[in-house]
What we know:
With about 210 residues, the protein is α+β, with helices and mostly antiparallel strands. Helix content is about 50%, strand content about 10%. It starts with a strand and ends in a 7-residue tail after the last helix.
Amino acid sequence: MLVVHHLNESRSQRILWLLEELALPYEIRFYERDPQTRLAPPALLHVHSLGKSPVLTDGSTTIIESGAITDYVIRRHAGGRLAPDPASADYDAYQQWLHYAEGSAMLPMLLRMYVGRLGAAGAPLHPRIESEMANHLSYVDGALEGRDFFVGDGLTGADIQMSFVAEVAKAHGKLADYPNLEAWIGRMHARPAWKTALEKSGPYKLGE
């Protein structure tokens, strides 16, 4: 049985969506953030020593990192669905988006959140952070020009992995500046599997 160790309002939401798209049987184990610190509870340390989410367990196998989990589920359990042919050029683009989401796109957004808590002390960093956010969101928006999905003509793990980028951009009030990205995440959120994952997970403010 696949088990998703799910932290509320976190990256693990997209893992639930992935599993719903594939109609795979799975169990959700719920963990709640500390309301003051917004940190994960100590209970997650019993699942993995980093104490972070998402974590997927599959029998005796434990996988961390959203991109690695997405790749693992699709390779091991999808039966050829949600990924291009590994011999194709589309597969190279697919792998790029899987890594790009967390490796590059999320960094300036996280910096904006943390530096914003510093008040005036963080002000000198704001222009650079805003410039980097605009750089990445413009790149993503351009990649979606005239496209319904990031790779090929149908949903892949690349779309699932990139969804959190769009949701955080929306939470920062940036999404309206990037119409292709805004339209794309609207289509993703309209998918029945995304809605089912949301129903199972409970409130998800980033997805509003």
